[in-house]
Model the fold of this input.
Amino acid sequence: MILYVDRGWFEKYNFSCEVELLSGAKMPKAVRYRANSVVYFNGDVTDRIYILKSGKVSLNYNDIETGQEIHDLINTGEFFGVKSALGKYPREETAVVLSDAQMVIFSVPEFEQLAMQNTRIIMKMLKVFSNQLRRMHKQVRNLISSGNEGLEPEEGLFRIGQYYLNAGKYPQAVYAFRRYITYYPSGIYSGEATMNMEKAEKACQGQAAASPAGSAFSVGAASKPAVSHDREELSDTAKKYYNAVSLYSQQNYQEAQKEFQKIVEDGSSDEYAAKAHFEIGRCLLGLEDYEKCVQHYTQMIKRYPTHPDLRDALIYVGQCHEKLGNSQKAASFYSKVLSMATENEVVYRKAKRALRQIEEKR
Amino acid sequence: MSVDLSMFERFAVTFQPGDIVFCEYEPGDNFYLIQSGRVQIVKILGDIEKNIDILQPGEIFGEMAILEEAPRSATAVAIDKVKALEFNRQNFEILMKGNPQIALKLLKLFTKRIYDQKRRFMILTLNNIEARVADVFLMLAENQVVEDPDQDQRIFKATVEDIAHWAGMSYSECKKVLNHFAGQRRVEIYEDSITVRNINDFQRFVNSQRNKQKSET
Done:
C-alpha cells in the first residue's frame, strides 16, 4: 500500500513527500469523522498524530503575534498534530472537521515506527521544524531591544573576544579572535583582533608556565602553534606590521602592500617578514592583480616551504586561477589543500566548498 | 533511548575542559551529540556571561545548523573532557540512514525548543510590564517539578537578572517591578532565589491582562 503525502503537514509549507509503507508494516486503520465534529481541542493533551485521507479539516488558532484567528485547511495526505504529540504538550489549535472526513490515527510509538522506516519524513519535518524555530528566534529577538542581541555577527564575534580577553579567559579569547580573523580577514576590527589575539596568546603561555600541571587549557583542534614572544612590549616591526594589517582591513590595499613590502625588505624579523610575505599576496588579490598574486605566492612557497599559512596561500592561488578563467587549475590547487588538511580544519572546508562551487558551475 | 553509536566513531571529536566548541555569531555548519562529559551553553550579554544550559551525555546541540549555515546563537564550552560526535549536513544523511533513532530524538528536541520559544514569546507580547514579570514566574513554574502541584507558594532559583532576561527588560526596570511586588507581599527576593507567595494569584493576574489586551485589539 502506498500513501502519498502531498504537501507536508499543517502549516503552510510546500514540500512533497511520499510515504511508502512497506508491506508488512502495520498500518493503523482509518477512522471516520462527521462534519462539524472536533478531532481535538486547543489545550487537550493526547499522543495522537493524524494523516488526513479524505474530507476537510481545519486547524483553528490565534496568531501569537497579532491574536488574529487563523483557519488553516489541511490538505489530503498531510500530517497534523505532530509537534504537540511528540513534544508532549497541550494542543495549540482546535482541529474541526468541515466535511465528512477519514483520517489515519497514529500513536507516538506507531508514528515513530513509520518514521524510522521512512527517514525522509523525519528529514523533511526536521527542516520544517528548524525553519519554525529560526522564525521564532527572530520574533523573540525583534521584541527584545536590550543587550547585544541585535548585533551584526561580525561585531558580535569581535565583542566576544573582547569579553574573554577582559575576563582573563585567554584561550577562549584566542579562539574568538582567531575565528574573527578567519571569517572577516578584512573586517573593520581585523587589525585590533590580530593584535588582541597575540596578546591573549601571550597570556595563555604565561598561564601555562605558571601552572605546574602544564597547560590548563588548550585552544582546540583548529589552533596553530602559538607564536613565541619573549618581549613584553611589541617590537617596532610588530607595530609596523599591525599598522599594515589595519590598512588592509580598511581595504587600502595599495598602502598596505607598500608597508608589508618595507617589513620584508627591512629583514630585522624573519617571523614578521614571513607573515608580511603572506599578506602581500592578499593585498594583490584585493587589488585584483591575479597574475601577480600567483607569481608572488609561488615565490613565497619556494622561499618558505613550511610557511604556517601555506594552505591558505594555495587557496588564494586557486581563487586567482578561477578569476583568470582557469577553473581546472583552480580545482587542482583546492584538491592539494584537501590532501594537506584534516576534515575539521577551516581550510579544508574552504577548499571543499570552492571545489563544490566549481562542480556546480559545470 | 539507548543507541548503538559504534559505527559513528569516525565522526568523534574531543574537547578539553575550557575549550570552545563554537562561539556565538560564528557561522555554524556542524551539530553535536555528546557522548561523554558536559557542555555549557552560554551567552555573553555586555559584561556578563550568562548560563543558558548545561548539557549532559546523550544531548544534542548546535542543531540549528541542519538547515543552513547561520550565525550561532550561543557559545558552547566544554566543562569536562568532552567526547562528541560531530555531524554536518553532508554526513547527516548517513547518520539518518544508519540510525534513525537519533534523527527522531532530534525531531523531539525541536518540538521542545519550539514550544519553549513560543512560551517565551508569549511573555514578551504582554504590554503590561508587571504582567510580563508575573508571566516569567508562570513559565518557570510550568517547568518546575513539585511534589504538590496545588501548592500556592513556589520558590525559584533565579536572580533579578534572570527574570529581567526572560521578561525582555532592563535590570533596573525589572527590579522596580519586583520591589513593587515585594511591597505588596506577593514575592520575597533573596540573593539567589525568589519566592512567589501565591502562584495562582499571578496566573489570574496574567490571564486578566491577556483578556484585556485581546478585547482591546
Q: What stands out?
A: The first helix of chain A runs from residue 82 to 87. Chain A is about 55% helix and 15% strand. Chain A has a mean pLDDT of 80.
